[in-house]
Amino acid sequence: MLKPFYQQKVPEAGCDEAGRGCLAGPVFAAAVILPLDFQNPLLNDSKQLKEEDRYMLREVILQNAIAWAVASVDHDEIDRINILQASLKAMHLSLDQLSTRPGLILVDGNRFNAYPFTPHITVVKGDAEYASIAAASILAKTFRDDHMHNMHNEFPHYEWKQNKGYPTLAHRLAIKAFGPSPYHRMSFKWRLDDADIPAV
To answer: Residue 81: what are its φ and ψ, rounded to 5°?
Structure first.
């Protein structure tokens, strides 16, 4: 079982992002405030869960959270400000939307830009340690996956429905064959000269 909270004096929001390592599409982030008595034995880092369990847990989180929000930063802004700053901005945007203001922010990872008037704590692999961060990771991941499914319908040859924009071999081969789409992050290296990519 994950730790239910870091402290109990003030509401705390868990924050996490999804899509940082992708070649295409936006980066998503979520912020979640859970009740102190929230428990679910399946709750874990979204990367450790089956897809059907992520979507099941998403509904549990949406129904039980004190407050939740999801935000994104698109590929153009990622290229302008870099993926780290875009990820941190998406987290801030999700915090901005919370209907309940947290007194503490728990952030997955080791980097964060201070949020106005609210202390924060960064936790490496926090999505596998604290329930609120794990919940945020599930919302960010599933909402981003839904977005990539919709983008897949516009550009099916990149197979975004399967790879969600991550640099799989099929995705990189499609970039080599068709060139980048309007949704690709042009500041990222395509690695088209990799030995595992045959000539087209």
So the answer is: -115, -5
Q: Name the nearest CA neighbour of 111 among 77, 80, 84.
A: 84
Q: What is the pLDDT of residue 198?
A: 45
| pLDDT, tens digit (0-9, with 9 covering 90-100), for 136-195 | 999 999 999 999 999 999 999 999 999 999 999 999 999 999 999 999 999 887 655 554
DSSP H/E element including 39 = none
Task: Give me the residue spans of the domains in the chain.
Answer: 12-154
How does pLDDT run across 11-54, given as a tens digit for each residue?
Answer: 999 999 999 999 999 999 999 999 999 999 999 888 889 999 99
Tell me which residue of 108, 12, 30, 122 sits closest to 73, measured CA to CA: 30
Q: Name the burial class of residue 50, with classes exposed (0-12), middle (13-18) and buried (19+) by CB atoms within 10 angstroms of its CB.
A: exposed
- Please state, in angstroms and rounded to a whole number, the distance separating the CA atoms of residues 16 and 106: 9
**What span, in angstroms and rounded, lies between the C-alpha atoms of 113 and 119?**
11
Structure tokens at 48: 């450790």
Q: How far apart are the first and last CA of the chain?
A: 48
What predicted TM-score, i.e. pTM, was given to this entire model? 0.93
Question: Is the Cβ–Cβ distance between 155 and 163 less than 8 Å?
Answer: no
Tokens 């994950």 identify what position?
2
110 phi and psi, to 5 degrees? -125, 10
12-154: CATH number = 3.30.420.10
